[in-house]
Design a protein that fits this description.
This protein is mainly beta. It has one domain: Lipocalin (Beta Barrel), CATH 2.40.128.20. It is built from 2 helices and 10 strands. The protein has a 10-stranded antiparallel β-barrel with strand order 1-2-3-4-5-6-7-8-9-10.
Length: 191
């Protein structure tokens, strides 16, 4: 038996019970976010007191009948503010979310299962992050919670708020109870 198997089995069972693939209302909540957005932001790295300029690219699109896919690319510019140095970092993420049954504005990260392979949900006891999203009005907030090797926690919160021209984004990363990174940005809708 693998470590954390009872917890993993519980998470799988609970998630399968709450995912509901037939709720048209869930899609209506996120439909207004569908589109592509580009912009930039500034991150404060509180531990080192550094600032980073980040280029941001976000796409929100339909997933299955009533969920959504969230794709984002973050380019962290180099210390000189340029995008061509050896210290430039790029991160690309694509995640699918499905609505939670009887929780109108709540979505859970969809498992990666398919027709011929087993559905795998994250196991927080093995350091894998658990992710979910909440939609309220013009705010889409994605939470990511992980347990560190030492048993502490890391919580990341991404709040995307629709505006007349696109969206504002706020990001915060906490380790245990201490804020490590805080970022704000503005994006325009490109389609």
């Amino acid at each position: 038996m693998t470590p954390g198997f009872p917890i993993r089995a519980f998470i799988v069972a609970a998630t399968l019970l709450v995912i509901n693939q037939g709720t048209a209302q869930a899609n209506e909540l996120v439909e207004k976010f569908f589109g592509s957005y580009v912009g930039s932001g500034t991150a404060d790295i509180l531990r080192t007191k550094q600032k980073e300029v980040r280029d941001l690219d976000v796409t929100v699109e339909s997933f299955k009948e009533d969920g959504f896919t969230l794709k984002w690319i973050t380019v962290i510019r180099g210390a000189d503010g340029d995008r061509t140095g050896a210290d430039v970092k790029r991160r690309e993420v694509e995640e699918h979310f499905a609505p939670v049954k009887d929780r109108e504005s709540l979505y859970v990260l969809a498992s990666e299962g398919g027709l011929f392979h087993k559905s795998e949900l994250p196991n927080p006891l093995l350091g894998e992050a658990v992710r979910w999203a909440a939609v309220e009005g013009n705010d889409m907030t994605v939470y990511s919670l992980a347990i560190s090797e030492s048993g502490g926690s890391e919580l990341q919160v991404y709040r995307r708020t629709l505006t007349a021209k696109g969206m504002d984004i706020k990001f915060m990363r906490l380790q245990d109870e201490s804020i490590q990174v805080r970022m704000q940005g503005t994006l325009v809708r490109t389609k």
